Amino acid sequence: MKATHSSLIGSLHSLALAVLLAVGLAGVVLVGPSPAQTTLPQVDTALVLAVDVSNSVDERRYNLQLDGIAKALEDPSVISAILNGPRGAIILSIVTWSDRADVALPWMVIRSTDDAREVAARVRAIPRLSGEFTCLSRALEFVNDKVLAQVPADALKTVVDVSGDGRDNCNADTSVAAMRDIIVGYGTTINGLPILEGSEGATLEQYYTDNVKGGFGSFVLAADGFDDFGRAIRQKFIVEISAAPSPAPRGSLAEGPVDVLGIRKPFRFARVPEPGQAR
Amino acid sequence: MLKGLGRTGAPGRFVGAIAMALANLIVVPQVRGADYTVRDVTSALFKASRDTPVDFADANLSLLDLSKLDFKRSVLTGADLYGSDLTGSSLVGADLSGTRLDRATIIGADFSEANLEDATLLRPTTGTGVTYAGPDFDVAQMARFARAKMARVHIIARLERADFRGADLTGARFTPVVTRSNTIATTPFSELAGADFSQATLVGVEMTKADLRFARFHRADLSGADLREARLARADFTGADLTGADLTGAEIEGAIFDGAKGLETVKGMDMAVSPAGEAGR
């Protein structure tokens, strides 16, 4: 049965009320998939943490990464950096990647200490997914196509934070550097957190500098092994959140998709025909 | 190269035209670059709503990873989705009339209430390859077509235990047809064992040689259906309308026809066989 216009408006009001209640009660908003129906939250940073869970990351190392992220979110200095931004809020998502990438934590808004603690608890509860290979290019492609394409917030800057302990070994069609350039072309900054441990430890920081890092104000901050990850991610959070936005942000949600490859015909938004009405 | 031939004068243009025509015959299937990036599509769908769907009519979306996306009743009329990955995507209520979904990956895709009239779905990837009756078969991974409009759709696929309940499959074809530009036509016949066609409209449907063992046709309208040599062992036609259907050479061992209408008009019922070769009813 088709919803009438008035019932649709009523549904939207109910949805908005539910969102407001969620903010008030939980302090954390898991933003839904229909931004056209809701007002986008104003945040300083949309931050994606892309975490390596490939074969070299055993359970201990996995827990060190997730616990490091959780502790960083609970750190008073990080919370202060979040709350003292121009808009006093960020939006965070976590992607785990190895052979394939997937969203481990959907976009969540942090605009209070309680929000940060709630998100930290969720981070610690993320079940471990593992894989064999280090498919960094595919991970960046996933982040570009499925995560950055649907940021449910109006963010002053968008940052992707890539951590891992090895270089890409998947021979994807598109190189890591090429995927980096595509993402940076949308105005996003990519920072690297190479974990210097194992056979690639001596060269990984340079690899991240050459192939991963990109965009306005980007940097590489290495962790001296997995045991040092917590320190590095905390420091990285503070720098990323405190950094000034890009002077020429591109590709924000409000502007619509940005064509970095050339002219494309624009999307057309069509009305759904009434029942019985021909298209 | 062909442009160069055109500059040699009228005979050259004639040769060029012939060469172009031959090239069009040889190059199959035709797959050109997609019109949009995955990010374009994802972003457009993200900003859309069900009352303002995105219009992808006639767009080339071939070979794109469109998995886990909610198409929010998008208009995809005439779009090319050849080889695209639609794993876990929701196409509920989408207008896919005339689309090409050949070789697409549709594991767990939901086409319920979609319009697939005149679409083609030739050799899609539909599952992990486990046997439909086996313990590892996950029915949630099978594409769903409940209440979809699928008149004249052309399907050659493994869609075991797929949900076609209430779908309109009038004039649909589940059989290979040799065409000029379609190497896919060499595929085996459709495997639809355990599929549920309850209350579906299957008027004039072509299911020749299709594997329909254990399929359910409760109160389905199969009038004029072509089921010649179909594998119908233990299929359930309770309350179905089989007026004028053709079951010549079909395997009907253990099939249930309780309350079925029009059995007296079914062609070839006396020539339907059990797997052991025994004549049917």
> Could you say which structural class the secondary elements and strand pairing of chain B correspond to?
little secondary structure
Task: Identify the strand order in the major beta sheet of chain B.
Answer: 2-3
Oligomer: heterodimer
User: On the 0-100 scale, what is the average pLDDT of chain B?
Assistant: 83
Give the N-terminus to C-terminus distance of chain A in angstroms.
Answer: 19 Å
Give an overview of the whole structure:
The complex is a heterodimer of chains A (279) and B (281). Chain A has 279 residues and is an alpha/beta fold. In chain A, 37% of the residues lie in helices and 17% in strands. A five-stranded mixed sheet of chain A has the order 3-2-1-4-5, with helices on both faces. The relative contact order of chain A is 0.15. Residues 1-12, 15-33 and 249-279 of chain A have low confidence and may be disordered. With 281 residues, chain B is mostly loops. Chain B contains three helices and three strands; from the N terminus they run αααβββ. Chain B has helices at residues 2-6, 10-26, 38-47; strands at 54-55, 120-122, 154-156. Chain B has a two-stranded parallel ribbon with strand order 2-3. Chain B is elongated. Residues 1-31 and 275-281 of chain B have low confidence and may be disordered. The interface between A and B is medium-sized, with 29 and 27 residues.
Q: Secondary-structure map with pairings?
A:
The complex is a heterodimer of chains A (279) and B (281).
Chain A (H helix, E strand, L loop, with lengths): L4 H22 L15 E11 L6 H16 L1 H8 L6 E8 L3 E10 L2 H12 L11 H12 L6 E11 L11 H10 L3 E6 L9 H8 L17 H14 L25 E2 L10
Parallel strand pairs in A: 1-2, 1-4, 4-5
Antiparallel strand pairs in A: 2-3
Helix pairs in contact in A: 2-4, 2-8, 3-8, 5-6
Chain B lengths: L1 H5 L3 H17 L11 H10 L6 E2 L64 E3 L31 E3 L125
Parallel strand pairs in B: 2-3
